[in-house]
Amino acid sequence: MKKCPEKEILMAFADGELDKSEVAEITAHLKACQTCAREVSDMSEDDNLLREGVNSVFTRHRVNERIMSQIRSNPVVEIAPAKKTFWQRMMLPALAIGLILLIAVMMIPAERKYHGTADSVSFQALNTEATVDGMNATTDRVFPLSACCAHRLNGDFLFVTDRKSPAEFRMQGIATVKLENAVPSFEEADIELDLVNGDGLQILVNGEKVELTAGMVNFRSLPKAVPASQTFSAGNEPAAIEPVRTIAAASATVSEQVASTAVVIDTTAAEMPASASETAAATSATAADAVEPVDTVDHITNPFTEEPLGDGR
Amino acid sequence: MNKHEVSDIELVKKVLAGEIEYFSELVERYEKLVFSYLLSRLNDIQEVEDIVQDTFVKAFRHLASYDCERKFAGWLVTISRNLLIDSRRKAGRNIASTDLVTDVLLSDSLKETNAHPPEIIIRRERFRQIVNMIQELSGDLRTPFLLRVVNELPYQEIAEILNLPLQTVKNRIFKARGVLREKRETYEEMS
């Protein structure tokens, strides 16, 4: 006779949790081993006895009629409250953690103080093709953005900032990113940014302050400084014209812009016209020409709440 | 637990669309589950009944906030657990209780048998032992064990309903059975 199976296996057998081959094996063993057969039989017998007993009590103490009569007397389903955002749900735990961290920071020696961020920023890959420091990132991993550790990102990412007005924006492209004075900073950036949630925030792109507001902002293939002689004729100083990177559609809401199309205006120094009148004409032409369809972002979900982000909330 | 023709989610949608009678089907499906969950946590059968009722009524009232990604059974057990905690906070609820679950189990389950042939007497005695032994188990062991035995749920489903890892559920059921086996052996040796 084979060695007796573990008691746990016998239990799984009695509970119908084994696969066919295991069942066949145990059944064969039980035919040959009275001890195990007794064990299984006792277990099943006790289970049956208990089940019958509880069923009998349950039958006598059912309240289904009471439930339905109470519901019929007041058949009102309450309207679901608006789902709290991730930040709203996390407010209390965050406060508690913040307090603990504060106490912890106060208790540790100064030289070991944590140089983390007061305004935390985290990012997460939106697909498995995206890489962080050359490694493929899984979409369920959230990376905190810190001042001390820059990351080289390539691909499609979602950034979430924890400020007074939380914001979420999407980055597509290549950039080295870190936190600089509590501001997300994108260096060597060849990217597109798209604010998908929140009122807007300030970021740094290639050392330049940028107000990220509604709509997509394109920083792809920014031309390097072009010698004045190649672009501007004498008397048309380029310094008089500031590149515009703050995009805010006059009337469209965030959701409309994200869900339909976004106006991309990228008036860079290289495209600056030669005169003021040409500036106006060229800016308007660039804006019109640059209207291009942008992929809808309905498929983007907030990794924390799993709610869609593309609906302008 | 979704071996039914109409899924839980479809029933929920119908109820939310105003066809409230479909809620009785959800009660039918899960009343025993909630009952046995509470039976494993309480000593007062009246309180079990009340919380079963409150659980379903609360579930109905808040049906609009039910997340269809979750198992309906798990959601009900969560509501039930919260009501149980609220109930525990109310002082003195079970102090004067006489309907202890053990007594009820022992008396109710054997009411049908007026005649007492020997096998019935043996079964009754065995049942009494089991109920007493189960009462001695900790709540953590008792709950998955009762859900398994009474509702015949697979371990995986119990894990989802109780929001526990599968291995934890297996271990707890195994431990519960181990304790019961030991007690049975002790009893058999004594007798």
Explain the overall architecture.
Chain A has 313 residues and is of the alpha+beta class. Chain A has three domains: 7-60; 84-114; 121-293, no CATH class. Chain A has eight helices and twelve strands. In chain A, strand 6 and strand 7 (183-197) form a beta hairpin. The N and C termini of chain A lie far apart (68 Å). The radius of gyration of chain B is 18 Å and the shape is elongated.
Query: Could you spell the SSE succession of chain B in H and E letters?
Result: HHHHHHHHH
Percent helix of chain A, as a range, is 25-40%
What does the largest sheet of chain A look like?
Answer: 10 strands, mixed
Number of strands of chain A: 12
Number of strands of chain B: 0
The residue fraction in helices of chain B comes out at over 70%
Overall number of structural domains of chain B = 2
Biggest sheet features of chain B: none
Strand content of chain B: under 5%
Q: Using a beta-carbon cutoff below 8 angstroms, give the protein chain pair with the largest interface and the number of residues from each chain.
A: A-B, 41 and 53 residues
CATH homologous superfamily placement of the largest domain in chain B: Winged helix-like DNA-binding domain superfamily/Winged helix DNA-binding domain
- Please report which band the strand proportion of chain A falls in: under 5%, 5-15%, 15-25%, 25-35%, 35-45% or over 45%: 15-25%
Note the overall shape of chain B. elongated
